[in-house]
Design brief:
- The protein starts with 9 loop residues before the first helix and ends with a strand.
- The protein contains twelve helices and 14 strands.
- It is an alpha+beta fold.
- Helix content is 33%, strand content 24%.
């Protein structure tokens, strides 16, 4: 009896590392120390010595049950973008710059080519965020997971000058709310998605005219990364007062997280076009409107609060970064919460 007979293939692990190295190299920053494959990822923090009061920020998350779609479609090159996005977008919400990311893949069986493909997506997400992929772990869990299954999670570390942190503390009644378009469902609410739609390969590979592509392609679209978008606003000299990353809990849970006591958000539902995928989900799943807005991003991956005089400049800066943005509402004096009108 040996380890391989028990279900863990050490040699496959070595091969996975070799195959993923080419993807990891594409994410390296000058601050990364050492090679790939050490016991710890090393990152030189000398650059922050020039900051007055550097604050480290961190975020950790996974892709949830969205990975189930990747299994059925046998498409594994974008799910890693989701894992990175969920972490770095949270860091960006506080005004920070993501520095580095580490991933964790748990699988039933280590298929080196599949693991390398997953990591290629992680590396692409890091590239989009400007973060270095400095380490990770792949763990085989035979008997706990099916051979073709895996789960993916990770965490990121970033930095921000303390005086530049986005806290929401300065939000007052009359501030303008800017919504940044999402790329689709992102990585939340997939347990409900899997109840609404048949998760068979036949169902996911069917072309849906109103979507303009297959259902599976639409649902597997990776989460939008907003690091460069928020950086563009900052570089334009605009102060972002508050930021909400619209993840699990949708509008009702996430928007209040940026609001101080005594301030509420009023969102106009007709201020932008809700993507077709959400309309399809609501119709086929008979999901009530409030539940949709309480579960999904409904087409807005981020909501920012800025001064009224900064609204046009914010939208222009976001457009320059390649994002689509809308004025979606305003803040009002009321008990903290969200009203959709």
């Amino acid at each position: 009896m040996d380890y391989k007979n028990s279900g863990v293939d050490i040699e496959a692990g070595y091969k996975s590392v070799e195959l993923m190295k080419e993807h990891i190299r594409k994410t390296q920053r000058a601050e990364v120390l050492g090679g790939i494959g050490g016991f710890a990822g090393a990152f030189d923090l000398s650059a922050i010595k020039g900051m007055e009061e550097p604050v480290l920020l961190s975020g950790t998350d996974g892709c949830g049950t969205k990975v189930k779609l990747a299994f059925v479609m046998d498409k594994h090159d974008t799910i890693g973008i989701d894992a990175v996005a969920m972490c770095v977008n949270d860091i960006a919400c506080s005004g920070g710059e993501p520095l580095f990311f580490l991933d964790y893949i748990a699988c039933g069986k280590n298929f080196p080519e599949k693991i390398a493909t997953i990591v290629s997506g992680v590396a692409e997400g890091c590239r989009q965020a400007g973060a270095a992929l400095i380490g990770g772990e792949t763990a085989e869990h035979p008997g706990l997971m099916e051979e073709d299954e895996y789960d993916l999670a990770g965490f990121a570390v970033g930095v921000v000058e303390k005086k530049e942190m986005i806290t929401g503390a300065g939000i007052v009644p009359g501030d303008v709310l800017i919504g940044i378009a999402s790329s689709g469902v992102h990585s939340n609410g997939f347990s409900l998605v899997r109840k609404i739609f048949d998760m068979s390969a036949k169902s996911l590979n069917r072309y849906v005219p109103e979507l303009g592509r297959t259902l599976g392609e639409t649902l597997l679209e990776p989460t939008r990364i907003y690091v460069k978008a928020l950086s563009s606003v900052k570089q334009a000299g605009i102060t972002i007062k508050g930021t909400s990353h619209i993840t699990g809990g949708g509008f009702y849970e996430n928007i209040p997280r940026m609001l101080p006591d005594g301030i509420a958000a009023r969102i106009r539902k007709d201020s932008y076009e809700v993507p077709q995928i959400f309309k399809l989900m609501a119709r086929e799943g008979k999901v009530e409107e409030k539940m949709m807005y309480n579960t999904y991003n409904m087409g807005l991956g981020m909501v920012l609060a800025v001064r009224p005089e900064d609204a046009d400049g914010t939208i222009a800066a976001l457009k320059a970064a390649g994002d689509t943005a809308y004025i979606v509402g305003e803040t009002v004096a009321d008990d903290k919460g969200v009203t959709l009108v």
